[in-house]
Amino acid sequence: MTTPDILVSEVGPRDGLQSVKATMPTADKLRWIDALHRAGIREIEVASFVPARLLPQMADAAEVVRHAVTLPGLTVMALVPNRRGAEAALASGVHKLTMPVSASAAHSLANVRKTREEMIDEVRAIAELRRDLAPHVKLEAGISTAFGCTLQGDVPEDEVIWLAAQCVAAGADEAGLSDTVGYANPAQVRRLFRRLRAELGDRAGAAHMHNTRGLGLANCLAAIEEGVRTFDASLGGLGGCPYAPGASGNVVTEDLVFMFEAMGISTGIDLEKLLAARAPLMAGLPGEPVYGMTPEAGLPKGFVQGKTHV
Amino acid sequence: MTTPDILVSEVGPRDGLQSVKATMPTADKLRWIDALHRAGIREIEVASFVPARLLPQMADAAEVVRHAVTLPGLTVMALVPNRRGAEAALASGVHKLTMPVSASAAHSLANVRKTREEMIDEVRAIAELRRDLAPHVKLEAGISTAFGCTLQGDVPEDEVIWLAAQCVAAGADEAGLSDTVGYANPAQVRRLFRRLRAELGDRAGAAHMHNTRGLGLANCLAAIEEGVRTFDASLGGLGGCPYAPGASGNVVTEDLVFMFEAMGISTGIDLEKLLAARAPLMAGLPGEPVYGMTPEAGLPKGFVQGKTHV
After folding, report:
1. Is the Cβ of A263 closer than 8 Å to some Cβ of chain B?
2. Does the pLDDT of residue B52 top 60, yes or no?
């Protein structure tokens, strides 16, 4: 098997499930994660290590991680908002930690009641914890509101790049950029990822794009053309629907994989099996709306994965 | 007022209304077209000149054209499938004719019961009619199924480019490419529009993209980067929903204009007024679903048109 051209990092089991009111039973989560793995997904953000009273949907985080790490070839990632979360995540045996750090000063204070400088200190503390407890575990900083913020509007690009560089200097292995509220446009995506790569080289991380205004795939296209090779996405577009019904948050994994595969960019993911992974998601969250155009429309007639279509 | 960077050609009143079962009353059509014009839209495909028994939604085509041509600065376009339609359209006073010519041999026979060669003859006949009756009227050939076909699957690129060139040789002023069934991907869009421009130069026409598999805006982004300057789109994504609820056909005008304006590419269209143009559309087609992510989510905080957002 050849190495895929890009890595699609599935965030549904964390980002998606955290955003819906219902709690998916643990057994369903595991079935869903198994189906994603069977489709060829090789990185999954499976849980968030936060107090269960805040996010009951994530109360089984450690159990989910312990199952996920048994799946061959899978990088198991968990979100940690702080040191305490990182300790629990490391104890559970995750392969990778992701920590959200907001580029918007207003959003950082509103969301985690910390300044950006305090969050850089938190990244440093987590990096040290990781070094002491599990040095093989990767640490990613996800720069949220990197393309704008519902509280303060524009977020200066210089501050985004400064923050990403500070996170890496504090010990993160990589820093990616997140369009948390769906404000990004392709020209901005190009500019910011170009600057990020110029600043961080191979430590420039994932593109986490939202489809709030319909630009999710166009922004991913701009990102790949700037050298981004890791793309966050959520099966069924689950998660992050802060505005209105129909306005999905995360980029839909199925549509993203279809776009790249149709372009001849290999993802290592089997599209038919990926579409089949919607069944356990829907079974575990009855009545919850799921999105995606490719699943509705089906694959084009004569579409063969791995073949460049004329 | 400076010249916009691109032209967004609104196809809703023809392509959209033709695809829904209900017939929008003429007075509502005119109100909708007025609202589109007020928003700054400068080209509208207002009607299709086909027998009323086939498409009762278009029975008022001549009346709609006669109103639309009174709006200052507006290019009024009509679809004509054949000579007879072209005669009626020219008599009504349109500024531009668009004629669909299918690149898929199978689709051409199934759709209009003519071979592609017979359709080229039809283009020639219409071009001559136009020259004799109204030489100032423009004639566009829209190469449909240019990116694939539900009947035959892949459509060879050589045949697409050949057909576009034949249409121009037969007298069309320009030839554009249509992703009639939503099969296109950005790499293919780049290749085909690059070849089209190499073949036809300034006679390379519009990109008519569908959003059937969610790639509509990504394909428009690829097209603009290949020099395309005219983009077809439909307000509320009206029209072309051959598959399933939620799987909209045409690219949504609101999302397309938001993407380009956010990128600093001027369209000449006022986004707030464009969103307001949804009201007469919805009033004229009560109960009909309309699409669009930007209208659901609203414009970003602090978004100012004409300003490049950081």
Report:
1. yes
2. yes
For a pLDDT cut of 90, what percent of chain A falls above it?
Answer: 90
Tell me the CA distances in angstroms from A288 to A95, A239, A253, A291, one per residue in order: 30, 11, 17, 10
Helix and strand counts by DSSP (H, E) for chain B: 13, 8
**Residue indicated by tokens 């829209």:** B142
Window 192-221 of A: residues touching B by CB (8 A cutoff) are: 211-215, 217-218, 220-221
- β-strands A96-102, A7-10 pairing: unpaired
Q: Are A137 and A96 in contact (CB under 8 A)?
A: yes
CA–CA separation, A36 and A265 (whole Å): 19
A183 touches chain B (CB under 8 A): yes
What number is the average pLDDT over the span A28-39? 98
- β-sheet bridge partners, residue B141: B99, B175
- The backbone region for B225, taken as left when phi is positive above 0, alpha when psi lies in -120 to 50, beta otherwise, is alpha
Contacts of A41 (CB under 8 A, 6+ apart): A8, A10, A74, A269, A274
DSSP H/E element including B97: strand B96-102
Interface of A with B in 108-167 (CB under 8 A): 148-157
The letter for the amino acid at A300 is: P
**A1 in contact with B at a CB cutoff of 8 Å?**
no
Q: How far is CA A106 from CA A36, A83, A192, B33, B41, in A?
A: 36, 22, 20, 42, 37
Query: What's the one-letter identity of residue B262?
Result: A
> Residue B303, class by beta-carbon neighbours within 10 Å (0-12 exposed, 13-18 middle, 19+ buried)?
middle
**Domain locations in chain A as residue ranges:** 7-297
DSSP line for B106-157: HHHHHHHS--HHHHHHHHHHHHHHHHHH-TTSEEEEEEETTT-BTTTB---H
Q: What ipTM does this complex have?
A: 0.94
| CB atoms B262 and A220 under 8 Å | no
pLDDT in tens, B28-45: 999 999 999 999 999 999
Q: Which residues make Cβ contacts (< 8 Å) with residue A196, sequence separation at least 6?
A: A161, A164, A175, A177, A204
Mutate to test the interface with B, among A217, A235, A261, A275 (most CBs of B within 10 A): A217
Residue-level pLDDT at B248: 59
In the 8-state DSSP scheme, what is residue B3?
P
Nearest partner of B75 among B122, B101, B32, B40, judged by Cα: B40
Locus of tokens 């957002």: B309
Q: Measured between alpha carbons, how far is B196 from B193 in angstroms, rounded to an integer?
A: 5
Query: Which chain A residues are within 8 Å of B302, Cβ to Cβ?
Result: 153-154
Q: pLDDT grade, residue B247 (50/70/90)?
A: very low
Percentage with pLDDT > 70 across chain B: 96
Task: Scan residues 18-57 of A and list those with Cβ closer than 8 Å to B.
Answer: none
Assigned superfamily of A7-297: Aldolase class I (3.20.20.70)
A300 and B156: CB-CB below 8 Å? no
Q: What is the pLDDT of residues B92-131, one digit of tens each?
A: 999 999 999 999 999 999 988 999 999 999 999 999 999 9
- Angle at CA of residue B275, ends B253 and B292, nearest 5°: 50
Range B173-208 burial, b when 16+ CB lie within 10 A, else e: bbbbbbbbbbbbbbbbbbbbbebbeeebeebbbbbb
